[in-house]
User: Fold these one by one.
Assistant:
Number 1:
Amino acid sequence: ATPMSVMVGVGKAAEYGVLIRQGDALQNAGKLDLVILDKTGTITEGHPAVTDLEACQGDESQLLALAAGLERHSEHPLAEAIVARADADRVVPANVSGFEASSGKGVSGQFEGATLRLGNRRWLEQQGVDLSPLAEAERRISANAGTPLFLARDQQVLGVLGVADAIKADSREAIQRLHDAGIRVMMVTGDVEATANAIASQVGIDDIRSEVLPEDKAGIVTDMSRQGFRVAMVGDGINDAPALAAADVGFAIGTGTDVAIESAAITLMRGSLHGVADAIEISRATVRNIH
Ligand code: ADP
Ligand code: MG
């Protein structure tokens, strides 16, 4: 395409809230044949809320106080949900010291001489915690597309919290548009398989990579590139930045983190996945006009 037609394309995209920050991104967008979507904040709104509280000893407010005591030190969207719930229920967060975040796993800290951990099944089981008493609650939470988070005091499980995030109203339709354009769509998430499957089926995705550690997201992008795909990555989080940079075209959600926006060639100002399909259509039209 000529510089003039690219300028026209970039202007057209801007009308759709699709901000093209790197010159070659518009021309590359039309060649994409695989779109990899992050889950939280990309397919979903990114403002999760606590939906379930189940304490082994029946003390839900103590469970929430301990969980909030840990999470008030964290900036993860899951943490915000738990702190907000404690606030709404007027539950005072426990005074946790020595906070540590384990990326893609959970959070830990010290309370009354013991170690508290809040995180996913795999991580707590690695610490030797038996979660079988909560299997039923876990199933219920993940089947409803929520994320189960287990709380343990040393090796003893205290309960489980369910945190769920609403799917953006137009995600399903936008993904259908990509499929109709002949593009493969994959979802990548750090969340567990059952939760990932529940979200994916609601938006029409059958290609899912779950329990992906933050540092492995970019590896999936480069793997698919090596297999010959022209890969788009769409994400909002700090965790997504290396994958956004590794993709042929990175799309950052406009309300996402600054790191994600700086790592991506394109910013979706409206936060909608329709912007990805818009960019691809405009790119294809721009290149077609020239030849
Ligand atoms: P995503 O790909 O959904 O953004 P992350 O890689 O940030 O996921 O996290 C993956 C999983 O690690 C979460 O689903 C959760 O189980 C656990 N986790 C991460 N951060 C926290 C936290 N602050 N509190 C509890 N669990 C967490
Ligand atoms: Mg995200």
Note: The longest helix spans residues 274-290.
Number 2:
Amino acid sequence: LASGPVSTPPHTVDGFVKEFLRELNYGQGVPLSRSSLNDQYLALARTVRGYLTARWLQTATRRRQKPHKMVGYLSAEYLLGRQLDNALLATDLTAIADEALKQCGIDLDALRQAEIEPGLGNGGLGRLAACFIDSLATMDAPCVGYGLRYEYGIFKQTFVDGRQVEVPDNWLSMGGPWEIPHPEMEVPVHFGGHTERYVGEDGRERTRWISGWDVLGIRYNYMVPGYQNGVVNTLRLWRARATRAFDLHIFNAGDYAEAVRSQTFAENISKVLYPEDSTPQGKELRLQQQYFFVACSIYDFLKHTQPTDLDVRDLPERIIFQLNDTHPVIGIPELMRLLMDDYDLPFDEAWAITRQCFAYTCHTLLPEALEVWSVSLMERLLPRHMEIIYMINEVFLEEVREAFPGDELRVRRMSIIGDHPERSVRMAHLATVASVKVNGVAELHSQLLRDKVLSDFSEMWPEKFTNVTNGVTPRRFVRQSNPNLSKLITDTIGVGWVANLDRLRELEVYAEDEEFRAKFREVKALNKERITAVLKRRDGIELPQGHLLDVMVKRLHEYKRQTLKLLHMVTLYEGIISGEVDAATVTPRTVVFGAKAAPGYRMAKETIFLINSVAKVINNDPRVEGKLFIAFPANYNVTLAERLIPAADLSEQISLAGKEASGTGNMKFALNGALTIGTDDGANVEIRQLVGDDNFFLFGMDEPAVAELQAKGYQPTAYYESNERLRRAINLIDSGHFTDGNREAVSTVIGDLLYNDRFLVLADYQSYIDAQAKVEAAYADQEAWSRSAILNVARTGFFSSDRSMRDYIDRIWHIKTGS
Ligand code: 26W
């Protein structure tokens, strides 16, 4: 990196025009007069990147002056969303770029639309990582985000006859203007083979790993700009490439087939993001991905990022690797391997160091989402790591026996190696044993981790467990996505809130101000106009106007209970068409769903089909015209979220209590002035505490009630039989009313609801219907509704990811911010 002065392009319209035309002419190689929209977008992105690069180099140079501890955020997913607007905002170039492009006869908005968002994540976990690195840059905290540069991100969802069809997301096909590749810096990563003992020159026995095949990690840097603070951090994603030493392998000819395999398969490693969200498939390629990016990242830190004279014994003063769920946990035995086999440290010393270098965040409560890898796969793919895991387990189980003498049952429960259904490595156990701290992502979640999922561990090491409630970046999810509300807030309390979200509290008094409430409603109305235009252009959907806008957007999963929302809509519809309910008394309501299903998740896909089927009938039935409407735009992603959330009146957060670790969409809605209808789950609990019971629609069983009902044996049919409205809603679906008389087409979902219903949809149905009736009553009083909505904005500044990062820094990382 340059250590001398770096030049920043001039912050003027003229300067910007010059940079832009230079990028267009010499970068894209086209004159303005013949440039395509994509040429212009790429030139603009590169221009803005130029402004970032200067700051990026300055940040790196400054950080190099002084030894410091940094965070290596290890995440298999980063759901970044579009980059252009965020970079313009961070550099305060939006107005300049707008004017500069105008002078070139170009509309900035058209170029914004040209960007394909990097969808390198599935949902909450990946988006959280993106929010965190944004906040760390804004706080000037030394952090490198490490991950995988998937060539194909999360699939593009399309609907064919109401059913989800996945299309590959070739996000780089139009160019990757935000990345800086370094093909000259290759990181070797080994797989397979065997280990052998040998005696070193000093007479000590050592182990070496003779790999079966190797790949190279190619570094791609992305800039992560802080908000108008001149800081730019790094996101470093790895791409796999076949080795050149490949020919040598062939000549050595020991294992020709394996060598050929490496050539063929090496580049598959970073090919595609696994679209499974919370159901690990145990696929070998996924383990290859995990080891690949973590090995590259640790190597990169040791060889390039730390000062060259650092003694590895001081590592804990230089680095803390944050494990974003269990996906990067293989980094633990990897660091052990490096310390023992490359740096010659004995096991005990390596273990003492390693145990100070990792911290683990768990993001789930579903038992099926806890990753395990079979011992046989591990032995084949990473034989040295498997040996090290056994060694770790041995000393760990000794500790357990010492702490709980004679409790062999406990030893078996806690072992890193499990026996059922096959011998496998429990990654959450390995992570917990090796980490300085283990955290959940909301108060309730952390409590349930301590009391249930990892209770043996929290008994042994109570101080190891902590909570850090998730957050979202206010830059992207308020300032950028909701310019109308942002302007109102800034006009009212000044601009400081963008980097200090607690200041939203100052809005609280304005909840009582009639004029402010009117302006607030005007903002909502404008945002509804905007989403109406977006859905029309993007999906051909004609959103009815003047409705309560009720939004449920998140991955499709049974525990999130999209079917409960659907049952509510069918209930309203059935009430009207049966004549039971006078249509004139019904609050006009539009429900927007957005949800991708994992391609192999049958029930989720059937639910998508059912939503689309119900939508088609309701939207075309004149009896409910102007009253009920369901929109299900395909391919819900970050870009659509940014348009949709600011327009919502009602936020649906209706997971079964005890199942949603936190949720982060819930926070985005509240911050944008939607009221929440939600269960006592995840961060909903904290949202409700902050906004107050009067400004939140709570329903459903709480976690202890759920546990109790399940313990005594839950029978969904009992609810079906005893609840007439529920029965009529289910019967209407079951009759084939929404599927052209085809009852078979709905049988999977209906059958599951009646005879399984693992997530207690029917048990919470009546409570949900009652809460929705309260919503309607509340919405009828627009002044009171606005007051509540404003209080939601004013009281949820806590959910800034800046605050989450403060908490990680204070409770876990102990790093310094600023220079
Ligand atoms: C395929 C294996 C697997 C297992 C778990 C893939 C992905 C997961 C994730 C842990 C699922 C996930 O994204 N969890 C979500 O994390 C968010 C950020 O903390 C929370 O807000 C959500 O509640 C949680 O579901």
Note: The domain at 67-82+117-468 is CATH 3.40.50.2000 (Rossmann fold).
Number 3:
Amino acid sequence: MGTTLQTIFQEYKGILAADERPSSMDKRLESRGIEPSAEMRSRYRHMLFSTPNLERTISGVILSEDTFADHSIEGVPTRDYLKHMGIAVGVKVDEGLEPYNGSDVLSITTGLETLDKKCAQYAKEGAAFTKWRAVIPVTGVEDAFLAAMASNMATYAQTVLKHNLVPIVEPEVLLKGTNTIDEVAAALERTLEAVVHALRDINCNPHQCILKTSFAATGLDNEPLSADTVAERTLAVFKKIGLDSDKGFYGIVFLSGGLSSETAISYIQRIRAIAEQRGTEFSFGPPLTFSYGRALQDPALTAWDGKDENAYTAQIAFTQTLQHAIKKYKGTEDIPLAGNGKRGVA
Ligand code: 13P
């Protein structure tokens, strides 16, 4: 387990989230006019995972259960293909969401009943880590919901650790609508506090887990803020609840949550850079990196466009995105990245 944590948090590397369920992946294909089917999902992932030198920037890949079980590349199961490159393989083990107490807006993660059995199997088949996702709206959230969500997540982590797999806990605070950074930061703080509290409550050490979190940023329909502002605010939230020391999580990774590739990358570049400025207000102990899905894959998926003859171009786009994501931005001004017209840095 210690080895998995060290493998994942190698300097200049991050995690690729490629754990979209078949229905979500089909929607992404369809939105680009690509025929949604098992065949196309498989071809796309084949292109992605066989990108030359992937292991230079990617230390871990999260797969969906169906990809982990069935998908192969040139006759080799994908999980073995990635492992042979020195990449840690993870599986998203939750079974999705169901309404919380009949609510229209709040939901709770399902899958605890089958988790123990699944983990035994996945550990035997070479998985190194797992992921479990909860979703938390920014407003209208009662303490009782947060406690239930966090307890569900802590039970997941405890079960996974029994099988010597590393748990990624992902309480995703949704960056939707016009929420302000103050509202998102407050929701993030409450959410993370609840998760840490629930883990400690059952004697599950956060230091054996990885936190996957949203940024303290504005909602997707609000004015975008600079990478400096988001980075400082996010680190301030973590520090406030003691996640900057080794009493917190072993390491922290970020989801992109619908931010454009450029914006999500500018945020992680800046976070990594300012967190490493020792002796400053924002200096941070545990390692921090990305675990993006859309922000890493979007440029490659667009370039691929469902055609095998575009695989090489798509792999170049993917490599460029990855190289961009592992850089740190050490300046004080905003990062000069081209935005998509909606979520560029201010
Ligand atoms: P995005 O980076 O596309 O938000 O996906 C990350 C993820 O794993 C969401 O559960």
Note: The domain at 2-330 is CATH 3.20.20.70 (TIM Barrel).
Number 4:
Amino acid sequence: MSLMKERVAELFRAQFGEPAVIVRSPGRINLIGEHTDYNLGFVLPAAVDKAIYIAIGPRNDEAIHLYAGDLEESFTSSLHDLKPTAKQWPNYLLGVADQLEKNGHRLAGFNAVVIGDVPLGAGLSSSAAVECATIFAMNEMWSLKLDRLSMVKMAQKAEHEFAGVKCGIMDQFASMFGQTGKVIQLDCRSLEYTYIPFNMEGIRIILFDTGVKHSLASSAYNKRREECEAGVALIQQKFPEVKSLRDASIEMVETCLAGKEVAVYHRCKYMVEEIDRLQKACTRLEQGDMAGFGEYMFETHEGLSKLYEVSCKELDVLASLARDCKGVLGARMMGGGFGGCTINLVKEDQVDETIAFIAEQYAKIFEKWPQHYIVAIDNGTSLL
Ligand code: GAF
């Protein structure tokens, strides 16, 4: 039995008795295709070997008793009173219960304990992992017979309605559908997906954590989404067939948006380039050309920093230090942005030098050491 499983079970027993179900749901990385999901483009995420663990059990009343083991915090609510709370972490569980109720599943009260080793606020999507763990556990406990895709959609809706982030589908999809050793090429419009083997021979995936957590990240994220929608509305005046930036070409962006509001122009330019870049990067991946793949990652960082403006100085420094390392094949900021981690593809025989160089140079500039995580690609949500 895994240590995490044992620990979450112990914490549950200490308060509530024997858990009915224990579930593991992982955090995710994304190789390329950033902010493309809500523009109905493609993404290339994978689940990792850092996860959220939930132990859950039913109650005989309508009460909800939650305990966050790592924070040592309790929260109590009721099925009659499902609404977002000022404290963030309970929202991921309450939001899922609310979605299930709204989809016609009559729940009973429940007890739940959550722990994990996904770094919080680091851009590895711990929130999606909690949502997926919760819905998967409830599906098992009450035999709701939901398929994985329905659970992903409800988990995403929970994030919209209870966490207030109008996220795309990538994070919940990656957590739920991850497979060891493979990245998921997901078409966020059709939701068709293919697994591409990610050849880790001679390569390590290293995340460097800025430790920066931007308090306005969710409002800035929602603003980016609005700017893309504003761009689509302008393009549609001339090209009504364009339903999302997925359908737009760079020529359309230049014709309809150059000279208009600069933020809208820049967001859309980045987006159309990134959707195209992901396709080219996947071709490199399939050819086994990891250096070529990595070059596209550096380009993505430039676009996210200069055009999409979701980077910050710490992320820019980490990406630029990585550029200076001969052991790094590709690097860029990862996830929503405004803090969190960079993702780096590093040659295995140069891992130590790379970590030492980047950490020392970063500490010289910011007077703090960046955390780093070496991650492996792992399976998605599962019953333990
Ligand atoms: C966050 C969101 F939750 C995802 O849907 C995605 O948009 C990502 O930012 C950026 O690619 O993680």
Note: The chain has a mean pLDDT of 96.
